[in-house]
Structure formats: structure tokens, C-alpha cells
Design brief:
Layout lengths: L16 E5 L7 H11 L3 E6 L4 H8 L8 E3 L5 H12 L7 E4 L19 H22 L7 E7 L10 H21 L4 E8 L5 H4 L4 H11 L10 H11 L10 E4 L9
Parallel strand pairs: 1-2, 1-4, 2-3, 4-5, 5-6, 6-7
Bound molecules: NADP nicotinamide-adenine-dinucleotide phosphate.
NADP nicotinamide-adenine-dinucleotide phosphate (NAP) binds next to α1, β5 and α6.
Length: 265
């Protein structure tokens, strides 16, 4: 077992073992979530895949406690099958799993490229960004006994946005997927919820052509205001859902968007 030492025995996640999947940079929402989770007492593991794994290992050292880094491509059946053993090298189970993963080809699917988006790219976007919530939950299921919390990240998929295009369709799939997971995993004591965040200047977001249109809307319409470089409100909401403070909540989407979603104009 490697060192996943807790730094706050009195935090809301004290004693919880949490896997945060989808950490590349320190600007990743997953990074901010891992940081808050550690500050709240959790033992944290993080994962990423492919060429960025080296970056993730370096970035991991910037967290309060350097967490184990697991290789997990959510489209790779071997990685998913190996997840329980990979996790058990460090902790003996999981109380929470964070899905902070999405991908859509910005050149073909985003930034006004909705019409004519090629199916191969759409299929990839849906697999990585929506279907993978089920894949990850299924892979982590044997580790989450007697129960746990799965939390994913969405961008409000109830409406059409400028620039978001096929990622919006993938997010609609993710939102529906979380409800079906809540149905099927609830009897095992596993809660499944999403946080719907406003626009944040992460690597993935900056790759979306026209992302600044969304940022401009938030700047004028979010009643609480919105800081697109402050990941802490989103990370805190994810951690709250991982904690015991939402014991009877599942299939829910919590908005962390400065109140934007509730405004008509
Ligand atoms: P990010 O830092 O780029 O995080 C996305 C992560 O997904 C990256 O670590 C990426 O790895 C990983 N990933 C992509 N394909 C994968 C695969 N096949 N297997 C495993 N991991 C894979 O961007 P982020 O903004 O923090 O995104 C995290 C989540 O928040 C996403 O679901 C995103 O849609 C959601 N969200 C973001 C915003 C926003 O404005 N930023 C708003 C609402 C919701 P690589 O970097 O190596 O590709």
C-alpha cells in the first residue's frame, strides 16, 4: 500500500477513499476536486490515460499529498477490467468515484460544427463523455461495498448552446446515463449524481472554438457572478456529493453556475 495519508481527520471526507478519474493539468476540474477531497480528509487516487500520464504524474506532486496515479483509458476494456486490482494496490476499496472525463474532436464536432458532424467522431465523443460513466461505475462497482458515491461533471444539456454542439448531445447522454445508473446501483447503496458547472478555463474548454461566447454570457447573466478561473466552487460541490451529507440524493444534477440556469434572460 502506498501513502495516501489523510491531512484532515475532521473533514467531511475523513476516512473516505476516492478515485478521481480525469486529471491532466492543475487546471483540470479533477485536480481541484482531488485537492479539496484531500483537504477534507479523503485518501485520493487519480487517473488519466495515454501520453498525458507523465504530465499527470508530475502534476500530482502539486497536491497536498502526492496521490497514486493509475492508468485508465475509459474506452479500454483491459484497463477497466484491471481497475479493481490497480486500486487495491493502494487502498482496499472505494467510497467514491469522480468521473471528470470528456472528449469531442474540436475540429469536427464543436464550434459551430453541428451539422454534418461525422459519426465516427460523434461515436467517440459519446463513448468517452457519456457511456464511460457506466463503464467506470461498472468497473469500480466491486470496490464500492457496502455502497458509495459516483459523481460526474456536466454542462447543462437541457438546452442548445453556441459552440458546444455534439458535446452538448454527449452531455445529454451523460445526464440520462446518470439517472439509469442511479436506478440500477441504488439497491447496492451507490448514489450517482452530477455537478453542472458553468464555463471554466480548463484545457478541454479552451480547445472549444467559440468557448468565449459562453464565458461572455456568464459574465453578464449569472446573478452571483462567475469566475471562470475559480474551480473551487465546483470541486466543493463534487466533494459534498461524495460525502455523507447527501445520503438520500441520487440521480440529481446540482448546478454550480452562479445561478445562471435559473435566469430566463
Ligand atoms: P480536462 O482537464 O481536459 O479534463 C478532461 C479529462 O478527460 C482529461 O484528463 C482527459 O485526458 C480525460 N480523458 C479524455 N479522454 C479520456 C479517456 N478515453 N479515458 C480517460 N480519460 C480521458 O477538462 P475539464 O474541463 O476539467 O473537464 C472535466 C469534466 O468537467 C468534463 O466532463 C467536462 O466536460 C466537465 N465540464 C467542464 C466545464 C468547463 O467549462 N471546463 C464545464 C462543465 C463541465 P487528456 O487531457 O489526456 O486528454
Amino acid at each position: 500500500m502506498s501513502d495516501t495519508t489523510s491531512i484532515n481527520p475532521n473533514g467531511i471526507l475523513a476516512g473516505k477513499r476516492i478515485l478521481v478519474a480525469g486529471v491532466t493539468m492543475d487546471s483540470s476540474i479533477g485536480f481541484a476536486t482531488a485537492k479539496v477531497a484531500q483537504e477534507q480528509g479523503a485518501e485520493v487516487l487519480i487517473s488519466n490515460f495515454g501520453r498525458a500520464l507523465g504530465i499527470t504524474r508530475r502534476i500530482a506532486k502539486r497536491l497536498p499529498v502526492t496521490p497514486p496515479v493509475i492508468e485508465l483509458d475509459v474506452t479500454d476494456a483491459d484497463h477497466l477490467a484491471a481497475l479493481p486490482d490497480a486500486v487495491r494496490e493502494h487502498v482496499d476499496g472505494l467510497d467514491g468515484v469522480v468521473h471528470s472525463i470528456a472528449y469531442g474532436n474540436p475540429a469536427t464536432l464543436l464550434g459551430g460544427k453541428f451539422m454534418g458532424g461525422p459519426w465516427e467522431d460523434v461515436a467517440q465523443a459519446v463513448q468517452v463523455s457519456a457511456y464511460s460513466l457506466m463503464s467506470l461505475a461498472q468497473a469500480a462497482r466491486p470496490l464500492m461495498s457496502p455502497g458509495g458515491s459516483v459523481v460526474g461533471l456536466t454542462f447543462d444539456a437541457t438546452v442548445a448552446w453556441p459552440a458546444y454542439d455534439w458535446m452538448g448531445v454527449a452531455k445529454a447522454g451523460l445526464e440520462s446515463c446518470s439517472r439509469y445508473l442511479a436506478r440500477d446501483l441504488g439497491p447496492e447503496g451507490i448514489r450517482v449524481n452530477l455537478v453542472s458547472a458553468g464555463p471554466l478555463r480548463t484545457l478541454a474548454a479552451k480547445a472549444i472554438p467559440g468557448f468565449s461566447d459562453l464565458e461572455d454570457m456568464w459574465a453578464t447573466r449569472a446573478p452571483l457572478g462567475w469566475d471562470n478561473a475559480d474551480y473551487a466552487p465546483t470541486a466543493k460541490a463534487v466533494c459534498a456529493l461524495l460525502s455523507d451529507f447527501f445520503p438520500a440524493t441520487s440521480g440529481e444534477i446540482i448546478h454550480v453556475d452562479g445561478g445562471f440556469h435559473a435566469m430566463g434572460a
